[in-house]
Amino acid sequence: MKIVVCVKQVPDTASEKALRSEDSTLDRDAVDAVMNEMDEFAVEEALQLAERTDGEVTVLLMGPDQGTETIRKALSMGAHKGIHVVDDALHGSDAVATSAVLAAALASEEGAGGAYDLIILGSEASDARTSLVPAMLAERLGLPQLTFAQKVDTDGANVTVERLTDYGHDVVTSGLPAVVSVVEKINEPRYPSFKGIMAAKKKPVSTLDLGDLGLDAAEVGAAGAWSKVEDFAVRPPRTTGELVKDEGDGGKQLVSFLASRKLV
Amino acid sequence: MAEILVLVDHLDGDVKKVTLELLTKARSLGEVSAVFVGSGFDTAKDKLAEYGAATVHVADADELTAHPVAPKAELLAKLVADGDVAAVLVPGTAEGKEVAARLAIKTGSGVITDAVDVVASDQGIVAEQSVFGGSTVVHSTITRGTPVVAVRPNATQPEPAPAAAERVDVAVELSASAKLATVTERVVKSRTGRPDLTEASIVVSGGRGVNGAENFTVVEALADALGGAVGASRAAVDSGWYPHQSQVGQTGKTVSPQLYVAAGISGAIQHRAGMQTSKTIVAVNKDAEAPIFDLVDFGVIGDLFDVLPQATEEVAARKG
């Protein structure tokens, strides 16, 4: 089974994020870049499915040069090869443009060449948190969408997932190829072993630009976005209100406070 | 006046509060038409009328709910193509955002997610978002197509404004690609009787300090006394003490209730990202240095197993 797992490099969730005043995009220089956490679950799920089916995992990333680190991480976990779409014109791309680029990379001969049974993504990136890209990718590719999966099973001809819902879950099934997005806790992402890290250095990573994908710079990046940030403002941080030490009546004091705010 | 389409979030006609919030918001933007997919319109009608839906497009064919997400997007795309639609508002839930995603591609329209406000202006529809855990406020416009906006639950106070909720049946011929994935089973967990986490006006959450699944009864008791929902930090969920659906934070749900109670939660950035926009925040923690205290309106430094039960009793006593 051929699996492509799409990953994103994001600012470390443990760091404070800010927008740049000049173009209202995320200031990525100010923070450490890491693999989007939800994508670690996607990589792990891809590896487990590949191990069960004697398959191959390709990792696909769109992003600036330093995205190579994230591709290498996926390779050191066990993915077989990488595709890195990098182009200055991509800066500021929204979900619409990102999904167009990923779709083109999946289809193009230079990229995955349309040769895949499953496309797996994390259900959300921790920076923008839109959850748009997996659904957009399914829409663009005309493939079944099996998203927010907390469990994935495949027999090589069909794929079945448990789709997490607010009320429990739906069991959703389709033929292949299909687009799957996974939630955290679906598995325990492995840590790259020393052997894996060494092996990753020799694994092939192809680098593609917009020209390779037959895309026009005007369709992507900030220029091609279908929405526009008009303005933004940083809110003053919340400040500490009243703190009391529990001397035996902490619960009562808490409720008195709630009552003073008419919350009880 | 141009139409504003509002996708109704419901379970068998039981209309979710977020729908009423969307209808309230939509009224200031244009003529409000609700879009009801699935069975149960008769149950839903009164609520939709009460909150100002002039028209309700009803699509109750079984195949619309037999496949996830794509059929709803196709139905909305058809309504956008056939009518004079100024914007489409969908609930900012997991599924709502996915419907928005597909609709945006189908109609060649820009999409904004997690809006906390939507207003009409000279530049068209302007959406306000609260990003990076509420630390930054962003105003955005849509530059192409018919604006598609996913609005975060609990961002608006629903206000009634009665209208007719006139039923207009709509049939849609689903494309083959909308039917590729099929729902074969729907598993509904037993209902707790508590409000939904993202819709609740009060949320009581427990974290590492709760120290065990069985101890969550202490958190639940206070939530029940206050009429709130129960949430959990990632540490508590990772430890298996509380279900994933209840996780509040960066990789869980984002909530912005009137009152958020954090019990035994240190307040790592991962957690703060999911609750920082709550109106009032209170916390109980043994550790006086816990970062959660940086953002509380009121904090008790103490053992949650002393403070929470006492608070629960006190709430009950005040309610008489």
TrEMBL record, chain A:
CDD domains tied to this protein: ETF_beta
Any one GO cellular component localisation term in the record: cytosol
GO MF term list: electron transfer activity
UniProt domain Electron transfer flavoprotein alpha/beta-subunit N-terminal: residue ranges: 23-217
InterPro entries in UniProt: ETF_a/b_N, ETF_b, ETF_beta_N, Rossmann-like_a/b/a_fold
SMART domains: ETF (SM00893)
Cofactor or coenzyme needed: FAD
UniProt entry keywords in alphabetical sequence: Electron transport, Transport
Function (record text): The electron transfer flavoprotein serves as a specific electron acceptor for other dehydrogenases. It transfers the electrons to the main respiratory chain via ETF-ubiquinone oxidoreductase (ETF dehydrogenase).
Protein family: Belongs to the ETF beta-subunit/FixA family.
Name by which UniProt lists this protein: Electron transfer flavoprotein subunit beta
TrEMBL record, chain B:
Keyword Transmembrane helix part of the UniProt annotation: no
A single GO BP: fatty acid beta-oxidation using acyl-CoA dehydrogenase
Location of the Electron transfer flavoprotein alpha/beta-subunit N-terminal domain: 4-183
Keywords on record: Electron transport, FAD, Flavoprotein, Transport
Coiled coil: none
Note accompanying the cofactor annotation: Binds 1 FAD per dimer.
Residue positions binding FAD: 208, 233-234, 247-251, 264-271, 285
Alphabetized InterPro entries for the sequence: DHS-like_NAD/FAD-binding_dom, ETF_a/b_N, ETF_a/FixB, ETF_asu_C, ETF_asu_C_CS, Rossmann-like_a/b/a_fold
Superkingdom of origin: Bacteria
GO molecular function: electron transfer activity; flavin adenine dinucleotide binding
Cofactor(s) the protein requires to work: FAD
Oligomeric and partner information: Heterodimer of an alpha and a beta subunit.
Role of this protein: The electron transfer flavoprotein serves as a specific electron acceptor for other dehydrogenases. It transfers the electrons to the main respiratory chain via ETF-ubiquinone oxidoreductase (ETF dehydrogenase).
Family to which the UniProt record says this protein belongs: Belongs to the ETF alpha-subunit/FixB family.
Annotated protein name in UniProt: Electron transfer flavoprotein subunit alpha
Species the sequence originates in: Wenjunlia tyrosinilytica
